[in-house]
Amino acid sequence: MTDKPDPLPSSVREESVSFYARHEKIHPRSVSGPFSRLRRLAVFLLLGLFYLVPWFRWDGRQAVLFDMPARKFYIWALVLWPQDFIFLTWLLVLLGLSLFFVTAVAGRLWCGFACPQTVWTEVFIWIETWIEGSRSKRIKLEHSRWTPEKILKKATTLFLWLVLSLWTGLSFVGFFEPMQTLTQNFLHFSISGWPLFWTLFYGGATFANAGFMREQVCKYMCPYARFQSAMFDADTLIITYDEKRGDPRGSRGKGTSSAASGLGDCVDCTVCVQVCPTGIDIREGLQYECIACGACIDACNTIMDRMEYPRNLIQYTTQHAIEGKKTRLLRGRTYVYGALLFLIFVGGMVALLNRKTADLDVIRDRNALYQEDDNEEIGNVYLLRVLNKEMQPRRFSLTIEGLPAARIDGGLPHWQIAGGEVYTTAVRVEIPAGSVHGGHAFRFILSDDSTGKRLVSEKSRFIAPR
What we know:
466 residues, 4-stranded antiparallel beta sheet, 16 strands, 41% helix
């Protein structure tokens, strides 16, 4: 049996082409310089706050605790309740506008120095460098066959990553569960289901994101990288390569001037690529993968110093500055962002400082429209819930406003309510028969006995015969 001839000529024959490139792990090279020192300072400051704040105490309790079961948010001396949820919205809006403002002025400063992905990845790389060595040693180890030495180094790195990840997950849950109790339960293997789940979940996410996914989170998962260009313009500070000064690129001996070699200042050493945590070549122009960490600037300046060339071939500047034009960091969009930030911040702070320190809920008894007694009085019964939002005991009084000749059965009520407690009681409001007809709106007024200040009023309705 003979094979049938191919009906298509070789010039148009289809070939199988793969559009998937296997991911190669990036091993950033260590670098020193102003941006690297600033990044290390940010790491120590941010992680120091994250890991230590749950251990701080305030007035006999955890200083920062979001107690979901009790529905109380403790932030140092401030205590927020579910009724104060608007302040969480205010904070999120404020943070969002702050990100827009910083991006319009300084580019991706958040990504390079404050993003959790960047911060934890930096620490994981430090651990990896400490155990496995420099960039060249790590690459060599990565591509070598498995030996006892490689197994030991990889196992030690993974173990330290795992310890840091579990500590991270535990610290995160410590903002929602009392940290001291949580830690004791974890060490004694008596931690309950949900705290254990979230500890393992956030610890596992840290382990995967900072240990293995790293730059892939920035490249493929982070939405900020995709819409940042909408906030950039020619006056936005970005990491940029001076193409006019640097090109044409080429290697040359130390001390050789660019004019003598007929080349630009770039010696094509690729150190800027080797230090980049996302593995990009900044010489190819601004790219969405760039997180503006400034590592390439520090690396390039080191090479320029060795070659005795001027610094800042790669620099943190604006497109207008590179083109020799005037840069305006403060311009239309920054004024708008700044004004909105100021107004929202001031408005939120005024509302926060003047928020209600007590709350009153009123539910009218619907089992009976009204009650008539022998004294020719009409009565309605109400269920009251009084919340003391302060953490110290307070004495409250209740009065009525807007209901003619109304009185509370038993006289003016006074209640001593402990800090952070809810007091529930029933009161009967009475009026002389015939003083009102049908439904009549009025208000309960809750006051602080010690100051006489009206704290809150709650609208209700009194039902009488028509």
